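Proteins fold reproducibly. Take a sample protein:
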Amino acid sequence: MGKPTGFMEFDRKLPSKRPVALRVHDFDEFYENWTEDDAKNQGSRCMNCSVPFCHSGCPLGNLIPDWNDLVYKGRWKDALEALHATNSFPEFTGRICPAPCEASCVLSINQDPVAIEHIEKAISDRAWKEGWIVPNPPKMRTGKHIAIVGSGPAGLSAAQQLNYRGHSVTVFERNNSIGGLLRFGIPDFKLDKHVVDRRVDQLLQEGIDFRPDTDVGVDFPTKELMESFDAVCLTGGSTIPRDLSLEGRDLNGVHFAMDYLTQQNLLNSGHNIGTDPRITAEGKRVVILGGGDTGADCLGTAHRQGAEVVYQYELLSEPPNERDFSNPWPQWPAVLRSSPAHEEGGIRDYGILTKSFYGEKGQLAGLRGVRIEWGEPDLSGRPTMKEIPESEFEIKAELVLLAMGFLHPKHEGLISQLEVNLDPRGNVATDENKMTNIEGVFSAGDMTRGQSLVVWALAEGREAARGIDEYLMGDTSLSRVL
């Protein structure tokens, strides 16, 4: 704790954002860089608590007080070492993690928490700029070969850890580029793809074999996968989106959010979207169904495409601006959250139930909805939903984006061919070492956990790597994460 009075001298301060009038015309990242003094001052606010709740708030168990203090003292390279000790890719979490560590920060009891996420970003960005992050291939190989199926954050995290242990790792990706959700699902204004490219390039130089355009179970036989590798790790994510089976769902203009976001990311990177119809908000009235991060990503993308107006509807009631007595620290705060996309415009509304879509000649023209209120829980413990009488409405829209989350991984193909067990939610079931019911087949990330955060994906990947290493070698020096 380099400055015991830091939390009294400095307030929480985030990096400045590019002006709205400029950033809505491009897909560049919206946060600007901190000065070194900004980062040091924010690091000095960390109190090095006797019980650092931020550790338990972070699924990775990041050594947050350590690198906060090292940044305050100007020991940036040491801060990077402490950060990399638990986090494979801090440049990702420093940009797109909702920072559960900050919700658990002791300062949150009666102040704003330390800006932990942005300190993390500052450390990793400086490290890349200074050339401290370089390829570090293992000095020896074990002779064991491992297949990772899926190149999102969980797959890359597992691949990195296993490669460091000297195993030969092959990462299969069904899309044409490596990165999974990081590349195709997260808009560039939150995560510029050069940030993904430089890390993938480092892993490539460290000896990891990447095979894009390879859909295992379709154009790479599952039988060959099992025969060619000593262990397999499934990290394909939760890819089946929640849908609405309503009248008019098949109208042209109703799309899943991830199809919309992926297409724009492909266009930004110069890829051809082929014969797929162009999904654009340009000049249109847009309705986004879903109030979470994916909905906010759609909102920011629609602004940049030139939407006439954007509505974002949420089924649940509007959260309070501050915690209430039933939601004390250090629980995750159930409060209203706004992203930079909300600063750019759009109309948010809550307690909205969509009843149907309508249109003419196969083209969407709008949706019908009703306002609802939530009552006491039923016998199952779930709050009851009740439509408010005479609250029905119609709204014109030429584009509706379904951003209501994901159900489970795709079962057809690899999962069904392997005959791995599924849990009651349809996710891949694993034991405490992340192994499925099939010997030597492991799983990690959203594919087994369900839709979750990038930091959980990284933690899951590291835990699966530990389990695989122990399975292949009899013991492991990789630490348990979960």
About this structure: The longest helix spans residues 454-473. The chain has a mean pLDDT of 96. The chain has three domains: 6-130, 145-239+407-473, 243-404.
